[in-house]
């Protein structure tokens, strides 16, 4: 995989984009962006691009969070109809997902489902401007889309944006809950990548560096300081690079339905899952299914303890739980949910959650989890965070 070009100062994001477009001799940009782009400085940049540099811009915002396959098809049709020669994604994970699909689908046969065709590198220039520091989606080669409500992963090496422009100012207006939850998403990516069965020495170095950067940038980022925003964007990108190599594990496999049932954000749900999974795995390290063996897994837990500056691996996992609490994420409720009372852990809800677990991601977990153990972990989440 080619190295991704990262633009991060000292020049402005606008100058970086000018440089990219000039270098690639771009004539017509296909801009995948959420409607919230109108609150960003970059909105003016794209509005004036044709007048300034003669580069046309076709905008595409016709997609929702957890984008549908149909939206990606619509985007692909528009890309073709307008004769665009470059894709730019400005936004969070959903914008990246749609843009990746358009990039892969653009040169395929439109008379056959794009999901049934094989992908190849079509050379269409692709640049990303992430507007949250969390998903790391700008660094991964998979896009998540929904076909008839079914979650699918569309993956190909060439869907990784070849360049990323980081603009720390986009994080200045990030709502507080999103700020905290997306940081935890990045942290969970890096932690899960460390212990994934697909991890190797190289991926672990990247993941550990990402953890170090998240923890180092945390306070300044939570205080919305420009340097904190800058450093967290880079940390989340690094965590994205780690899961691009290893994918995520049981924490992410378990978190998706929690977001659907309780309306909490993805990073929040992932943090709750990892907070119960981590101590459980330390306890069950002896049941490791990773060919690298239980000792390597214990070594990973020890390295995580080093990163957290704790004496024992159990204390590091406990510190993660304390961080969840400090961030006010120790609940299964949305921050604006005023309804009183605890969240009930009914058998039906637990069953629904256990049925929802992504089996492919579960295979990346170094400790095999039975359905009973998954039920136990969900009950633990309700016990800790439901009341
Ligand atoms: Fe995630």
Question: Helices, strands, pairings?
Answer:
Layout: E1 5-7, H1 13-24, E2 28-33, H2 42-47, H3 49-53, E3 56-60, H4 69-82, E4 86-91, H5 93-105, E5 126-130, E6 142-147, E7 150-155, E8 163-165, H6 176-195, H7 201-222, H8 226-246, H9 250-262, H10 266-283, H11 294-308, H12 313-326, H13 347-356, H14 359-362, H15 371-385
Parallel strand pairs: 1-8, 2-3, 2-4, 4-5, 5-8
Antiparallel strand pairs: 6-7
Fe (ii) ion (FE2) is lined by residues 185, 189, 252, 266, 270.
What composes the largest sheet?
6 strands, parallel
Determine the fraction of residues in helical runs and give it as a percent range: 40-55%
Spans of at least 5 consecutive residues with low confidence: none
Bound small molecules, which ones? fe (ii) ion
Please identify which CATH superfamily of the largest domain we are dealing with: Dehydroquinate synthase-like - alpha domain
- H and E order: EHEHHEHEHEEEEHHHHHHHHHH
CATH architecture of the largest domain: Up-down Bundle
Question: Per the principal axes of the C-alpha atoms, what is the gross shape?
Answer: globular
Tally of contiguous helical segments:
15
Number of strands: 8
Task: Describe the overall structure.
The protein has 387 residues and is an alpha/beta fold. It folds into two domains: 5-170, Rossmann fold; 174-385, Dehydroquinate synthase-like - alpha domain (Dehydroquinate synthase-like, alpha domain). The protein is built from 15 helices and eight strands. The strands form two sheets. It has a six-stranded parallel β-sheet with strand order 1-8-5-4-2-3, with helices on both faces. Strands 6-7 form a two-stranded antiparallel ribbon. The relative contact order is 0.10. Fe (ii) ion (FE2) binds at residues 185, 189, 252, 266, 270.
